Amino acid sequence: MAVETKMRKFMNDPANVVKESLAGLAAAHPNLLRYDSAAQIVVRKDAPKQGKVALISGGGSGHEPLHGGFVGLGMLDAACPGEVFTSPVPDQMLAATKAVDGGAGVVHIVKNYTGDVMNFKMAAEDAADDGIKVSAIVIDDDVAVQDSLYTAGRRGVGATVLAEKIAGAAAESGADLATVSDTVKRVNERARSFGVALSSCIPPAAGKPIFDLPEGEIELGIGIHGEPGRRRAQLGTAAEVVDVMVEAVMSDLKPSRGSQVLAFVNGMGGTPLIELYLLYAEVDRKLRAAGVEPVRNLIGNYITSLEMAGASLTVLHLDDELLKLWDAPVHTPGLRWGV
Amino acid sequence: MDGATVRSWMREIESSVRAQRDYLTQLDSAIGDGDHGTNVTRGFAAVVEALDGEKDAPPGRLLILAGRTLVSTVGGASGPLWGSALRSGGRVLGDSPTFDGQQVVEVLAAALASIKDLGAAAPGDKTMVDALEPAVEKLRGEVAAGAQPAAALASAAAAAEAGMEATIPLQARKGRASYLGERSIGHQDPGATSTALILRALERAVAAGS
What pLDDT, in 10s, does the model give residues A131-165? Predict the structure, then answer.
């Protein structure tokens, strides 16, 4: 495929991309959320809700709709967007925590990246000093990274979206801080992901692609920051690519035969739905062949890497409660059903 | 050495990382996500501005303010790491209006301890520790042997640069580069590189004031 080497983006000034995009999010969804540009946070319109456990998340920008697009009924109470691919700072997380705390405590959903974990840790310590109960849960579902002494541990990727939806529903139903935290943990423990890329992406401040992928090749085991993957291979058919993804996820998740699963085929931002559904056809067939039943699915661009062409597969091993929470009403810019 | 030395150090860092911004970003693109140059430049520009508003503060307070500013403006991993490092270093100086060579050793040793603690990194992990630890050891030895601060810092900066270059053959075990596994081998660590720039900036600040 053609390698895009020059930046061609809709923007006014590379330094203002994040702020101007968030202003657009707020202008489009005033019924759901507001954007506090001084604190650099997106807050649910009706926050704080007294007695409800609040959920916040955050991370670098460039993954839209994650996280700002998941603020609203049945999902997040606030999001802290950092610069593109850069963790937000503790001041943002502290401001968000204070803005949404309704007295029942605040859950921080943290993707496992060195910077995110450090910044959220500092914010949680500050919040505790202010008397707010904070429970931080780290998401690390990416099987492409070995969790060992020799890495920063598995990255948080697709399971983040599922955890925000499912734990958001638990919080909306009145569950307490321990229960909502446990729900996030359970989603993380029961979900695995693997991503592939057909192109890199161009961070606005850098102005050029993070890596070059020669024609006819695919990056296997990518994250969500345009970083190169674990290895490079010749691009095969969709069926062959999905074989690699399903094998990577299922050999680690090891659900028992007959299990019900949620299959999440996520686009990285530059892959059209026609290809994502084509991938889902392969995923659905292969999961059934592997003895599990994909009773729910999510297909589309939900945790992206700017304009990267590529996709990730997340499989969540459901149980009755997770299924019920998944089906519960949600109304955010990025996900909406049941309302 | 006094508050003016700290201000001068921060200005030297700012101009150095700004001049090397594209280089740092290029190193980070190879094994990270291509934002290191932008992030540290944004952070130290904010530090220079913040210190300009604190005319009479002692050097330790200035370092603490610099650290707090980095934490609040940089994000990523380098913000908390260098932010905590400068805060720890500043606390060593307390409210003393001046400091000597031995105290520079203690400031940098506290900064190193803070980075190792927060980042859980050890030498050889292909991180900023690989530049900072040899620099602190070199500085400690030179100061103990009676070297003047500027000369001792020149040796320490050279040790940091050697440590920085020695990250090239290493496989990353911390941070985003660790996701690459063996593919991180053959690239110089961007954090170790900016750390070497920070040490060299300190040498210039101290030499200019002595």
Answer: 999 999 999 999 988 766 667 789 999 999 999 99
Answer yes or no: do A147 and A277 share one domain. no
Catalytic residue among A63, A67, A108, A317: A63
How many domains, chain A?
A: 2
Could you list the residue range(s) of the whole structural domain that residue A219 is in? 191-318
Between CA A307 and CA A314 the distance in angstroms is 20
**Is A225 considered catalytic here?**
yes
Name the minimum distance, in Å, from the CA of B144 to any CA of chain A.
35
Active-site annotation holds for A108: no
Choosing from A29, A67, A108, A225, which is the catalytic residue? Answer: A225
Backbone angles phi, psi at A155, to 5 degrees: -80, 155
Give the domain range for residue B204.
3-209
Comparing alpha-carbon positions, the chain A residue that sits nearest to B28 is A210
**Interface residue of B179, B183, B189 to substitute, partner A, most A CBs within 10 Å:** B179
What global pTM score does this model have?
0.89
CB B11 within 8 A of CB B65: no
pLDDT of residue B178: 86
Residues 6+ apart with CB under 8 A from B53: none
